[in-house]
Write a structure and sequence with these properties.
1 helix, alpha+beta, 2 domains, about 15% helix, 6-stranded antiparallel β-sheet
């Protein structure tokens, strides 16, 4: 009688292979757990953006250098959402206003654009109107609402 052993091409027995598979599964589950911990809870869902929110919008920008090569980088625009138009449809936009060096800068972002990497929520300003265009000439500070 000859004894047969299950030996794989790597030279490990079947029981050693099972242990290796279990350890691989443990590593994968640990990676998944770590991935869940790194989730940024300050990210805003596109449908929950409202006027009065102070947001940071990460936008992809393509630039050409002197050699003619295209480089892609992410530029952050932080400001107050003063208008949200067209609801939840594909052409929906938000108008964000910030003050840069005593000069007001407004930018209109299409929400569903692939150029927008992510939108982070900084704070919420108490707003009673749907459009905050009066902030352009308004000198008083607005009340901030605590972010949960």
């Amino acid at each position: 009688m000859t004894e047969e052993k299950n030996i794989s091409t790597t030279g490990k027995s079947a029981s050693g292979k099972k242990k290796e598979e279990k350890s691989d599964k443990k590593l994968e589950s640990k990676k998944k757990k770590k991935g869940n911990q790194k989730l940024d809870f300050s990210l805003v869902d596109i449908n929950t953006i409202k006027t009065g929110m102070v947001v940071r919008i990460h936008e992809k920008i393509k630039e050409k250098n002197t050699k003619g090569e295209e480089k892609e980088r992410i530029q952050i625009f932080e400001g107050t959402v003063i208008a949200h138009k067209h609801g939840k449809e594909i052409g929906a936009t938000i108008t964000v206003r910030k003050i840069s060096g005593k000069i007001g800068v407004e930018k209109i972002f299409p929400i569903h654009s692939p150029l927008i990497e992510k939108i982070e929520l900084k704070t919420i300003i108490k707003a009673r109107k749907a459009k905050l265009y009066y902030l352009k000439n308004y000198k008083k500070r607005l009340k901030k609402v605590a972010v949960k």
